[in-house]
Amino acid sequence: MPWLQVRLAISPEQAETYEDALLEVGAVSVTFMDAEDQPIFEPELNTTPLWAHTHLLALFEADAEPASVFAHLELLTGAALPEHHAEVIEDQDWERSWMDNFHPMRFGQRLWIVPSWHAAPEPGAVNLLLDPGLAFGTGTHPTTALCLEWLDGQDLKGRSVLDFGCGSGILAIAALLLGAEQAVGTDIDVQALEASRDNARRNGVADAQFPLYLPQDLPQVQSDVLVANILAGPLVSLAPQLTGLVKPGGLLALSGILAEQGEEVAAAYAAAFDLDPIANRDGWVRISGRRR
Fold this sequence. Notes:
The protein folds into two domains: 3-91, Alpha-Beta Plaits (2-Layer Sandwich), CATH 3.30.70; 139-291, Rossmann fold. The chain contains nine helices and 15 strands. The protein has helices spanning 15-24, 66-77, 94-100, 142-152, 170-177, 190-202, 232-237, 239-244, 262-269; strands spanning 3-10, 29-34, 54-61, 84-89, 105-107, 111-115, 126-130, 160-164, 182-186, 212-213, 223-229, 246-258, 273-275, 279-281, 284-291. A hairpin with a 2-residue loop joins strand 14 (279-281) and strand 15 (284-291). Helix 1 (15-24) crosses helix 2. The protein starts with a strand and ends with a strand.
């Protein structure tokens, strides 16, 4: 069925007031959107920052009258409305629309990431079947692509891998399919661990090959290869811990790093690793090297 969509142009200070008011007048959902393509990177812990110019989108059932909605909003807030707009939008199968736009992707020479509902373009290649669910990591983001291409270029046969911040498990599972003997995954999000487990089983990976832990439960092991696609701030602060998780002579690949943050992250690992030239894609970078 169609929906009435109401859009308000607000400041961060108005967000709570208008969110509450929209719900009070019958909105079935309220969503915040960036009005100016302004990025927010690495917010402070326990904060939910908004953009300087934010659009508040609210959906109402199609029989709602825009004039009545706006009049009630003014009564509830006691102020003239900010810039606003209403339109009727047609309903659609959002899940099907997303699935139709997620296609098989090749990384390096051997590896394909294939949606679980899609036929593999090269059945004889290394095909990772992925259903990302609600966790990050489909291979579409430059940071994931940089890590997948790096893994494809390594000789992983018989090696142990640690995926720190595993998300959907895409990097660890790719490493296993590329020849690694075992991959350990860790993530702060229980839902991510469940997505990793589901994707591993979808690819025929046994639980014993891919043990999963919350960070506080991670055993003190040293791996042949460590990959961490998280954020620059945590990568810098965790440098001593991550370094200790890599064997002497072991390999490291880090991403989730903006280009302007690359030198700072590299400096945090330079004392313990012989680093490769920083790899760059679309404003994001990968830092890799071998532990001394």
